[in-house]
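for the writeup, i need someone to sanity check this before i put it in the appendix. the sequnce is what the collaborator sent (i think, or maybe the updated version? ugh). structure was predicted straight from it, no edits. if anything looks off just tell me and ill rerun, i have time this weekend
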Amino acid sequence: MMKLSDGEKLILTMLCEIHEKLKIENGVDTELVKEAIYGGNLWGMKWAFTGIFHDSEPTDEVVEEAAEIMDICGLPSKGSTKSYRRRKNRAWKKKRIHSARMFVFAAGTAMANPNT
């Protein structure tokens, strides 16, 4: 069951009003959000916005591995090749990256898109 504090409800309502005043298109359905808050049917938001509200959270290990991969991917555009290799080797030694395929994919993506 979704729960929001009174302060969170107020903030969401105010954000909906700002969203509507600015006439933002292709955003969150502000009418649905307000109706869910006003009517006490917060489950409706969870049902409508499954990409925002879900019950699965990654483990700490998955988060650390993803952070390491993103860190390594950012290095070719920020530092020298020597620095990149040093970080890659450190990551392998720490065993943060469990799959050689994942690293090759991540590194290849970084090299192909150095400005991302």
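Residues 6-48 form one domain. Confidence is low (pLDDT under 50) at residues 110-116.
thx in advance!!
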